[in-house]
Write a structure and sequence with these properties.
The complex is a heterodimer of chains A (497) and B (71).
Chain A lengths: L1 H6 L19 H16 L3 E14 L4 E9 L6 E10 L2 H12 L8 E11 L3 E9 L1 H22 L4 E4 L2 E4 H4 L8 E6 L4 H11 L8 E6 L7 H15 L5 E5 L14 H8 L5 E4 L8 H5 L2 E3 L2 H139 L1 H6 L3 E5 L2 E2 L11 E6 L2 E6 L14
Helix pairs in contact in A: 6-10, 7-8
Chain B lengths: L6 H16 L5 H43 L1
Helix pairs in contact in B: 1-2
Classes of the chains: A alpha/beta (497), B mainly alpha (71).
Chain lengths: 497, 71
């Protein structure tokens, strides 16, 4: 097409000069020619082009973007084509809208679908004018990237990240959180609004909780933001300080740096971090991958602070409830015991009195029963005894009388018998006296009997008397002394009675 | 009263005595001893309860004072 234009160039502009024999024209003439050709070909025409942004420069003063649109070989990544492009004036607001909606910074190395017009400028050459950018293409791309990153996180960190019932369960989510969060490691950039908001909300909390915040400042914007935040996490871990939580905030800046929170490295570090991480990244769209990996994700720095305060308040309320319940339960318990003791006390007193009075009554009843019973018994016995007694008395009197009579009889008998006996005895005695008188040796001797003595002894055995022995015969009152002439047995029994 | 007596044991013993007295399974021989023991136990429990109550009130007051400080 250009050749056709060139062929149709008017002859008069093809001049010859003395400097050279070669026919030539001025560059401006050529570029003007190009300008015209381009203008004729591309004027009023716009194109939607898929390309990658490269070598972007932004001049905030002038609100100018300069960049290249390039296309690379998908397999080899070799540059296929490149063209300059710029955005300025009212079109820059399209870029702002894009960044806001997608969360993607308009920067180098991103694939975009842009609407451009072709322009040739005499000073700057051929370039494309940025007119508009398609959001959904980038959003789709980003979403695809995000899904790929999530997939990579799951497959490469199966021990620390799992997808359970559509929810990402990470090691960080399972780290036990302290009931009170006081010592906080804060990752933020020092000049970010979110950092100030977060600290302000914590400092001005209505419960006057005290927080100790160690700041780990990191760039949360720009190319190396993700890597810097990972480095801060490593520092926090290596500090070995007993942090209750790590808080990552971002906010107040442009929404474009949001994409760092979808970074594989940062997401992985957050998922595997041994201290609970609370995010307050401040975004309008879907949650970032870091949010999905973190212990707790809030939508803004102030919300992160409020969440921490609420967490601590929950603990305090629990304690206050314990206190309340301890107070009421204790009072209740003491009151219950008091009532119980009082009841037992009065019960024991009344029961004891009852028992004592019952027993006393019983005893007095028994007593009266015993007394009357005994009296009755005595009376009965007396009544039974009386006739016996009477009988005994009667019998006794009778017996005494009868005995008296007998006795008198005996006395009489004895008396009379005794006199008689004495008489008899006297008689007998007299007889014996008579007899004895008759038997006295004198009387015997008087009656003619003699006693023979030998040697002064009465001889009873005639054998002791020998012939010639001298014997004495006593005859009544005369002793006859004689000598034995003879001795012989007498056969005449002269004195047989 | 033995030094090792604690509220719980005292209360148990007291309940036993009260039950025994109530269902009159106590002989008059041991009644005086038991009632005396019950009185001792009640006194012990009351004293303990009063002391505990006082102590608890003190602690609760401290607790409340502290929690007010925090608020």
């Amino acid at each position: 097409m250009v050749q056709i234009f060139l062929a149709n160039l008017p002859k008069q502009i093809l001049k010859t000069t003395k400097l050279s024999d070669i026919q030539h024209i001025k560059l401006s003439e050529l570029t003007t020619l190009i300008e015209r050709v381009v203008k004729d070909a591309f004027a009023e025409k716009t194109y939607w082009v898929i390309a990658e942004i490269s070598g972007l420069n932004y001049y905030p003063d002038k609100n100018y973007y300069f960049f290249d649109l390039v296309e690379k070989n998908e397999a080899t990544n070799a540059l296929l084509t490149s063209i300059k492009c710029n955005a300025w004036g009212s079109t820059v607001s399209k870029i702002r809208d894009f960044e806001h909606t997608t969360g993607q910074t308009f920067t180098s190395n991103i694939q975009v679908l842009v609407k451009v017009s072709v322009e040739y400028n005499l000073k700057y050459g051929l370039k494309l004018n940025f007119i508009d950018i398609d959001h959904s293409y980038t959003v789709g791309n980003l979403e695809k990237q995000k899904q790929e990153t999530l997939k990579k996180l799951l497959t490469e960190n199966p021990e620390h990240i799992q997808l359970i019932n559509g929810e990402y369960v990470t090691f960080n989510k399972k780290v036990p959180i302290n009931p009170v969060i006081q010592h906080i490691a804060l990752i933020s950039s020092a000049n970010a609004e979110g950092y100030k908001d977060f600290k302000k909300v914590l400092a001005e909390n209505q419960y006057k909780y005290i927080f100790k915040i160690d700041e780990y400042l990191a760039q949360v914007q720009g190319e190396s933001a993700a890597q810097q935040m990972v480095n801060r996490l490593v520092e926090i871990y290596e500090s070995r300080k007993p942090y209750d939580a790590v808080v990552i905030v971002r906010g107040g800046g442009t929404p474009t740096d949001f994409l760092h929170f979808d970074s594989y490295l940062l997401s992985k570090a957050v998922a595997r971090f041994p201290i609970p991480i609370i995010t307050g990244i401040g975004h309008t769209g879907n949650q970032s991958i870091v949010d999905l990996m973190a212990y707790n994700a809030t939508i803004a720095p102030t919300k992160a602070a409020e969440c921490i305060i609420a967490h601590n308040r929950t603990f305090e309320e629990k304690i206050l409830n314990f206190q309340k319940s301890i107070i009421s339960k204790t009072n209740e318990l003491i009151a219950r015991h008091q009532i119980f003791l009082n009841n037992v006390n009065s019960k024991i007193i009344s029961k004891t009195k009852d028992i004592l009075s019952e027993n006393a009554q019983y005893i007095s009843r028994i007593n009266s029963v015993i007394v009357t019973g005994a009296n009755n018994f005595l009376i009965q016995q007396k009544e039974r005894l009386q006739p016996l007694l009477n009988k005994i008395i009667q019998k006794t009197v009778l017996m005494i009388d009868s005995n008296k009579f007998n006795l008198n009889k005996y006395i009489y008998t004895i008396k009379s018998s005794a006199v008689h006996l004495l008489d008899v005895k006297q008689y007998n005695l007299n007889y014996y006296i008579q007899l004895i008188r008759h038997l006295s040796p004198m009387n015997v001797l008087k009656r003619g009997y003699s006693l023979i003595y030998q040697n002064g002894k009465i001889v009873k055995d005639p054998s002791t008397i020998q012939r010639g022995s001298e014997i004495t015969n006593l005859l009544f009152d005369t002793e006859i002394i004689s000598t034995v002439k003879d001795k012989k047995k007498s056969n005449e029994p002269k004195f047989k009675l | 009263m033995s030094q090792s007596l604690n509220y719980k044991d005292a209360l148990n013993e007291l309940s036993e005595i009260a039950a025994a007295i109530e269902n009159e399974s106590i002989s008059v021989d041991e009644l005086a001893t038991k009632v005396k023991r019950a009185a001792e136990l009640i006194d012990f429990c009351q004293t303990k309860l009063k002391n505990t109550d006082a102590e608890v009130k003190k602690i609760l007051a401290q607790m409340e004072a502290k929690s007010k400080d925090v608020k």
